[in-house]
Amino acid sequence: MSNVIAFPKSRCYARQTEDRARISGRQPSSGRSPTSVRKNQVHSDRIEPIWKCSTNGILMSVVLPTCNRPELLNHCLAALARQTLDSSRYEIIVVDDAPSTANREIVEQWSSQSAVAGPRIYYMPSDGPHGPAAARNRGWHAARGTLIAFTDDDTIPYRDWLLQGLRAFDGVVQAVCGRIVMPLPGLPTDYERDAKALEQAEFVTANCFCLKRVLEDLGGFDERFRYAWHEDADLYFRLMQANVSIGHAPDAIVEHPIRPAAWGVSLSQQKKIQFDALLYKKHPVLYREKIRPSARWDYYAIVATLLLTVLALSMQKTSVATLAGACWVLLTARFCLQRLRGTVKTASHIAEMIITSACIPPLAVFWRMVGIMRFRVGFL
User: Fold this and answer.
1) Which candidate, 246, 242, 226, places its Cα nearest to that of 283?
2) How many CB atoms lie within 10 A of CB 227?
């Protein structure tokens, strides 16, 4: 394989045609050497892509979005570079959604190591639009493989992941979902238990495969999903509605370690709920069938009793405030106990559950209202 080529600093991924020109190995008329990239530059216009000259025979393209996680990216690339699938048959496209020198250097190191006998590895900085959906679209648009494999930078694919995924395409199947394992010794926290539920998901972009022509027909991912939340469910629902034959490859395994999370992480995750409204707007029946069969009436009840308590106190209606406040306490305690059931009972975790259980319902309802207004849909 050829040496690493650096391409120009100006808007490295502005058009799909430019991406295909780069991935085909055509050298642009101007550019600068990788050595001219100064350390610690982080603006996307200054982080240059890495490509290699193309060769024939690419069957599968692995699209790997990443964002500010160089250590995780390094572990994932280590697993992807050592797949049992013939290295001449697949390529790896890293789409950096927050372009950084650290990520580029990691890709460059792996690209250099695989130059003799490894897969082709490309680096693609993204200057927007941002989000995992947009990053994946950038990657598969530039891919040369007829099959596209998707995973995330915080996964560790098994060595035969690509080979097992490939075997599931029998001439009829057009998309495939693999299996995710999330090792978790001992009792989990509430956050860890929620994260581990990903193992039971029907279709997730941390481990799925799709024919490129199917993605072209569907238009890829909906880039309005700006966070890692329901963009894969939306694609799955559209595949189903288009009568695409979806297969399962239980032996195509990706390990998804559960990363340590900050105390109170559940509060920051509530902003993702706004995209439930978008998913419901696009797929109301499938949303109720596969995501949530009914509204979170417990959240609405908690918020209603809290607001009634505050209103009654402001009007000096002591008896009403006492009754409403007691209802709020009971409903919140019930929610907290539900979250604590089957989880670790350390003092820190119990305190976290008590405090966040009081805050989550108002935050969740707020972000749900944001989604309703943003996407103009009647949704509870």
Assistant:
1) 242
2) 14
Confidence of residue 48 (pLDDT cuts 50, 70, 90): low
Q: Is the pLDDT of residue 37 over 80?
A: no
| 264 Rama sector, left if φ>0, alpha if ψ -120 to 50, beta otherwise | left
CA distances from 55 to 12, 87, 118, 355 (A): 22, 12, 13, 57
Cα dihedral 28, 30, 34, 40, rounded to 10, equals -110
**Residue 139 is encoded by which pair of tokens?**
């990657």
Q: Give Cβ neighbours of residue 254 (< 8 Å, ≥ 6 apart).
A: 151, 155, 156, 157, 158, 161, 178, 179, 180, 181, 206, 207
CA–CA distance, 221 with 286 (Å, rounded to integer): 17
Specify burial of residue 376 (Cβ count, 10 A radius: 0-12, 13-18, 19+).
exposed
Looking at residue 205, the DSSP 8-state letter turns out to be T
- pTM across the whole model: 0.84
- Are 47 and 106 contacting, i.e. CB atoms less than 8 angstroms apart? no
Label the pairing between strands 120-125 and 90-96: parallel
* 122 burial via Cβ count (<10 Å: 0-12, 13-18, 19+): buried
> CA nearest 138: which of 28, 42, 11?
11
CB atoms within 10 A of CB 82: 13
Tell me how far CA of residue 102 lies from CA of 11, 35, 47, in angstroms.
19, 14, 10
Residue 57, pLDDT score: 83
pLDDT at 297 over 50: yes
Assigned token pair, 22: 């780069």
| Element holding 92 (H helix, E strand) | strand 90-96
